[in-house]
Design goal:
Growth Hormone, Chain: A; mainly alpha; disordered N terminus; disulfide bond; globular; single chain; 61% helix
């Protein structure tokens, strides 16, 4: 073996990540590498920090619905894997919708800030990549309730935000909370 034991496909995957492109042909367990998720969390925190002191151009002219990111760790550990997956998928979908709506509102602002637009664009791209990585992990299949399973799952808890800084705080919290918990457990189960 040479100096690098990496496969060309893995190298290509890492080259495509900075572009925010979904890596459909990448290794299915790439998200199990903690550095991958940490990269998205870092981007979310950077966006959150960049918008914390922002006053002009950071408020929306409407409220945007976002998922509740609070986690009751005791309840989460007792939750069935399918319920965890469902909560993560619903939250990811709601968050993607919220970020896309924020992108539209920012684009329609009278004087949109280019730096803010860049953070929103990175978040949109990051959420698409995370969705693809979770799909490769098999999370989407786990999220589909079985017909004989318990009656309908509890609906996703949501609330609204009216500023970009709050939207990025939710984005960061979701990645650090429910997404990290779910991928950690899914990766451990896959290693057994």
């Amino acid at each position: 073996m040479g100096a690098c034991d990496c496969t060309p496909l893995l190298l290509l995957s890492f080259l495509l990540f900075p572009l925010g492109l979904p890596v459909l042909g990448g290794p299915p367990r790439l998200i199990c590498d903690s550095r991958v998720l940490e990269r998205y969390i870092l981007e979310a925190r950077e966006a959150e920090n960049a918008t914390m002191g922002c006053v002009e151009g950071c408020s929306f002219n409407e409220n945007i619905t976002v998922p509740d990111t609070k986690v009751n760790f005791y309840a989460w550990k007792r939750m069935e894997v399918q319920q965890q997956a469902l909560e993560v998928w619903q939250g990811l979908a709601q968050l993607s919708e919220a970020i896309l709506r924020g992108q539209v509102l920012l684009a329609n602002a009278s004087q949109p800030c280019e730096a803010l637009r860049l953070h929103v664009d990175k978040a949109v791209s990051g959420l698409r990549s995370l969705t693809s990585l979770l799909r490769a992990l098999g999370a989407q299949k786990e999220a589909i309730p079985f017909p004989d399973a318990t009656p309908s799952a509890a609906p996703l808890r949501t609330f609204t935000v009216d500023a970009l800084s709050k939207l990025f705080r939710i984005y960061s919290n979701f990645l650090r909370g429910k997404l990290t918990l779910y991928t950690g457990e899914a990766c451990r189960r896959g290693d057994r």
